[in-house]
């Protein structure tokens, strides 16, 4: 049994957690920065990095105290080393390096996306490799074959915005707060998903890639027209995203041998999206797994768990491991036309 301290600071959440290789979450804490970014309708990197420096050390002390552990009792430190906002990424990584050096413990430099990708295995011991993963977050929208720890094949990505980014932009257009996903989901409950005709970009196209920019522009026009209730726009927008995710995932499943469909990342906290993908799995004869909501949005338990998996596979890092703003899970994936920086 190994005890891992996990640290996360790659975007607008500061988080620390203590997780063991027997899947016990001994303690975990997440502090978001929503209030700080709210006036700007999105994350401001400088504000995010400064807040990480202020908050993370206290969270590390907090989880150690809660679990009644000292750094001497942990077996490794797992810190997110990217991808993300570089000023923030450096905070957890440098803290992790400091603790690793001072306590003489191994450092595991975790890819944040691998944290999301392996998160369902923390709560589901029966989930084996391989599985087809729909990874939907604020920065990414990808379909990947997860073949094992550190072994990923990207099948598709977004050619413009990520799914969470689309939720955040639509929310901003509707005058809702940041992050947009939970705000849209709440407002959509009072709306009619068929009321506003919106496009489903790339629906039916042969490769399972995603696109959401055209949907955002259509929301912009619907808002500007002044003829629709905001709740109807929110519900129609959410349904359009659901339809795109289901269609693209169905396409990927049609050529996948994996027995299980898994959804992870912040957008996987959305009830309609969880249900629609569970239905798709049932329809296509696949098992289905999705982590609980707290494990979908950014947290450090998933980083600690990825650390436990990597430690188990003998994958530890040197103390000069770099912080990386960009870090694809599948380094060999070809760049998709139009994918820009989100490839
Ligand atoms: O995984 P995550 O916490 O951070 C990144 O790694 O990006 O994902 C954050 C994204 C945000 O865009 C947020 O609006 C979206 O996940 N999100 C949701 C919901 N909760 C969070 N989107 C739709 N419905 C939700 N309930
Ligand atoms: Zn994330």
Describe this structure in words.
With 343 residues, the protein is α/β, with parallel strands linked by helices. The protein has two domains: 3-117 and 295-327, ATPase, nucleotide binding domain (Nucleotidyltransferase, domain 5), CATH 3.30.420.40; 128-292, ATPase, nucleotide binding domain (Nucleotidyltransferase, domain 5, 2-Layer Sandwich). It has eleven helices and ten strands. The protein has helices at 34-37, 45-66, 86-103, 112-123, 163-173, 180-188, 213-225, 230-253, 271-283, 293-296, 301-312, and strands spanning 3-8, 13-20, 25-32, 76-82, 107-111, 131-136, 141-148, 151-156, 260-264, 287-289. The strands form two sheets. It has a five-stranded mixed β-sheet with strand order 3-2-1-4-5, sandwiched between helices. The protein has a five-stranded mixed β-sheet with strand order 8-7-6-9-10, with helices on both faces. A hairpin with a 4-residue loop joins β1 and β2. α5 packs across α6 (180-188) and α7 (213-225) runs antiparallel to α8. The longest helix has 24 residues, at 230-253. It is globular and about 60 Å long.
């Amino acid at each position: 049994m190994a005890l891992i301290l996990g640290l996360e600071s790659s975007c607008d959440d500061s988080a620390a957690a203590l997780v063991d290789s027997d899947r016990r979450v001994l303690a975990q804490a997440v502090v978001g920065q929503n209030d700080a970014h709210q006036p700007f309708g999105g994350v401001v990197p400088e504000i995010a990095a400064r807040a990480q420096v202020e908050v993370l050390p206290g969270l590390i002390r907090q989880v150690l105290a809660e679990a009644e552990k000292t750094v001497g009792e942990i077996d490794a430190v797992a810190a997110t080393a990217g991808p993300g906002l570089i000023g923030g990424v450096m905070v957890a990584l440098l803290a992790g390096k400091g603790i690793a050096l001072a306590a003489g413990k191994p450092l595991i430099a975790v890819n944040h996306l691998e944290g999301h990708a392996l998160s369902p295995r923390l709560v589901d011991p029966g989930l084996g490799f391989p599985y087809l993963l729909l990874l939907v977050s604020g920065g990414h929208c990808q379909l990947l074959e997860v073949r094992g720890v550190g072994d990923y094949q990207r099948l598709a990505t977004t050619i413009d915005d990520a799914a969470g980014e689309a939720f955040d932009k639509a929310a901003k257009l509707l005058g809702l707060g940041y992050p947009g996903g939970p705000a849209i989901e709440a407002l959509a409950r009072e709306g009619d998903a068929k009321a506003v005709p919106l496009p489903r970009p790339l629906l039916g196209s042969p490769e399972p890639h995603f696109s959401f920019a055209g949907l955002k522009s259509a929301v912009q026009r619907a808002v500007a027209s002044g003829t629709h209730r905001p709740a109807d726009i929110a519900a129609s927008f959410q349904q359009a995203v659901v339809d795109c995710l289901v269609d693209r995932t169905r396409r990927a499943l049609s050529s996948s041998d994996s027995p299980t469909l898994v959804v992870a990342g912040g957008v996987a906290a959305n009830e309609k999206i969880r249900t629609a993908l569970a239905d798709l799995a049932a329809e296509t004869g696949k098992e289905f797994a999705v982590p609980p909501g707290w494990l979908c949005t950014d947290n450090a338990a998933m980083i600690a768990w990825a650390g436990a998996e990597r430690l188990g596979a003998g994958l530890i890092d040197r103390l000069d491991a770099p912080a990386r703003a960009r870090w694809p899970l599948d380094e060999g994936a070809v760049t998709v036309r139009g994918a820009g920086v989100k490839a």
